[in-house]
């Protein structure tokens, strides 16, 4: 299938701007891609299934290993790959030369649950604005005394006053402790995303074919009507909200249906949350990220791993993508254990059933309240009972749509 044609419309600067929603901190283009790195550990399973031991070693040896989970982990004595597993994946926006006093919040938080038979996987994204209790934590530089806040603040408070690997370790540990206290889940492994590294994966693949489930208008990318050059279609406020439409610039529009997106289009689409046809904002973006994850994994395993020209660059890019805490289990063991997970066997599940459940909290602002059924879902992840939850709540599974041909 050819690359998608990004359709333009006939709207003018008088078009209404998106409805008001909670302010957010601005983030670079790569931030919205972080969820797709959830495929990486499973990507290694494709190497294990279709490649040689040498290729598998070449892939896993390039990954940065670091202790991240810390006190949130279960005891690591005699850890094995058998049984149900939970992986905590965190995407952050750490900018070059960022001042240590500038807080870094986790942009995406996702749990990957692998049942005991290792034949399937479930992806559960935690809304970054979820109201939680963050425990007290001393990172050795700037202690945090604990309290109610949005879950994405946990990484910020854990890493506050630190730089480099120490900031990553302490930020992740406090977030993992927060997730453990909220859900009872002690992660078996964890990873932090490097957005620039993941950009290279998509560049190696060249395109990503996926189903767009709702027409999406970009607030970031468009074309200047006079010159045909790429231009921003909307003026964005410092807090990341939309100010107004820019005259003479037509935004990229990704219409509902099958598309093969080039790297620029794919990055732009996964990033959007403001002008979605269903007005589902963060929940729509969360769903699109999960669907995109499956599409990337499918393409890596059907195209990248079978291409002698793409494979070396792909393995290098994968290795640079994330920092991993393997939980005391070698990555090679993770790869072989998950080699039977096909991309089509990955189910993406919507917290709060993809609907808003917001509340204004003094000192916090507008936050998402996880519903009783969402907490039931998280308990099912903890208890390795997700299949029963899905059977009882089939509408909570996000549809992936038909898979386009490459």
TrEMBL record:
> What is the protein's given name?
Transcriptional attenuator, LytR family
Q: Give the top-rank taxon of the lineage listed in the UniProt record for this protein.
A: Bacteria
Transmembrane stretches in the record are: 33-56
- UniProt key word Thylakoid: no
The record's comment on protein family reads: Belongs to the LytR/CpsA/Psr (LCP) family.
Q: Region Disordered: which residues?
A: 1-27
Gene3D superfamilies cross-referenced by the UniProt entry:
LCP protein (3.40.630.190)
Q: Give all residue intervals belonging to the Cell envelope-related transcriptional attenuator domain.
A: 105-300
- Compositional bias annotation for Basic and acidic residues: 1-14
Q: Does the keyword DNA repair apply?
A: no
Q: Which UniProt keywords apply?
A: Membrane, Transmembrane, Transmembrane helix
